Amino acid sequence: MAIKGGGGSAENRGRSPLAMVVAVGLCCFFYLLGAWQRSGYGKGDSIAMAVASLGAYLDARGVIAMSFAPRDSHEAQVQFALERGVPAFIGVLGSIKLPFPPRSFDMAHCSRCLIPWSANGGMYMMEIDRVLRAGGYWVLSGPPINWRTNHKAWERTEADLAAEQQLIEEYAAMLCWEKLAEMGEAAVWRKRPDAAVVSCPTATPAPPRTCDAAAEVPGLTGESYAEENARWERHVAAYRKVNYRLDAGRYRNIMDMNAGVGGFAAAVFSPKSWVMNVVPTAAELSTLGVVYERGLIGIFHDWCEAFSTYPRTYDLIHGNGVFTLYKDKRCKMEDILLEMDRILRPEGTVILRDDIEVLLKVQRIASGMRWKMIMANHEDSPHIPEKVLYAVKRYWTADDKSSEPEPEKKMKKKAGSSSQERSSEEEEESTASSSEEKGSEE
């Protein structure tokens, strides 16, 4: 589990007092958890040491964590984490890189995560090194740590566990990590902040964390970054006038399907909610690193594929220009809308911002999914082609007649009174003015 926090990065090679406090504090915390588990109360209870236990613990202390686990092996703990309102997604640490940019996290944590850290030439530890910032921490709790005490409970030989830990120590030294402490059930390593300076063979140059993170992204300047933030402040202010629940704590799990630099997430920031900032792989600029530099979290994703989460896990989905971005891609608009409907909770909200011609097509498709929708003009002027579509996913059952798709209701009303029907080609070519006339007729 990778954790986004406020870990410091000292410039000297010695251990700073803060580093020691963090290391000892974490070791004591996990030592108590390990003792609690060995006492018998924690055995057989997968929830107690679930993938998001530490995430929920740190969330109450102002630290946001990103948790992940496989879907089958961990008994839907990701779904349970999302039900608790803790950021999580389905994923594995394998041969494919994690969907994060380099130097994203201040700390990475593994508690009995069953990852063979000593296997495949240290490939998994190298991936942790990639996403870990210089000066960041890696916390390992579970096998093979404290193998002298637990080897019988783990049903493994002492020689096997000792060799595994020895390999982990060697790979950590090759990555220029320094071991700060090992106490009880946990061990803490630190990625040296001067790894590139001391000619570490595996180190990559890491620029210092700065306020102007946008300067590191080609095509993005400090001025455009500030303009983007100001623009989203105006947009979210307009959203709140239409949907007052944005300020009422109604939404806990929020997703931005095309996050950019995280302007929407920053504008709706609240201690009662969190935002999954998704940067599409089809986007022109790779801005996820900027999102993490702001203290937010996010993930790379291709919306032509299913998102790595369980059904009905998000309360609010926001999409800015998503359908225009995927207009000429290999997937259809229906595919993206169906995926949105899958991960959205019943009574959840969707806010889409796009060109009016695109939103009219979305409106026709979403009506078949029984979404309740309204269209609003751009907050600056009604003459701007960009509009905003607000939708709510209705809660309905198979025998529920009150939430029938809007096209069926229209056909019932017009049956027997209309002698002609508009063709599908004419509907696709309809303009904004014709849609307004159609709404007035209803």
Automatic annotation (TrEMBL):
Pfam family, one: Methyltransf_29
InterPro entries: Put_SAM_MeTrfase, SAM-dependent_MTases_sf
Name the record gives this protein: Methyltransferase
Keyword ATP-binding: no
Region of interest (Disordered), ranges: 399-442
Keyword presence, Glycoprotein: yes
Location in or out of the cell: Endomembrane system; Membrane
The enzyme's E.C. designation: 2.1.1.-
Alphabetical keyword list: Glycoprotein, Membrane, Methyltransferase, Signal-anchor, Transferase, Transmembrane, Transmembrane helix
